[in-house]
Design a protein that fits this description.
Elements lengths: L3 H13 L8 E6 L5 E2 L10 E2 L3 E6 L2 H11 L2
Length: 73
Amino acid sequence: EPSKESILESASIAGFYSKARQSTKVEVAYILAKNVKKPKGAKQGLVTITNYKTIMVKIDEDIIKRLLDEDTI
C-alpha cells in the first residue's frame, strides 16, 4: 500500500501532465493495476477502471520540478 505522500506526489505529476494542467486543482483517480482492463476491440489507450478512489490535488509547478529532479539523481 503506497503512502499518502506518494499518492499525493504521483497525483500532482499526473495532473500536471493532463489536459487539466491549466486548472488550479485537478481530480485524479488512483487504483490497483489489477483493476484496469482494456475492453476487447477498444482503441489503443482506452481502458475501464473499477474499485478506484479519487483525490483532489493542487498543481504546483515548484513541487513538480522538485519531484522530477529527484528522479534524475
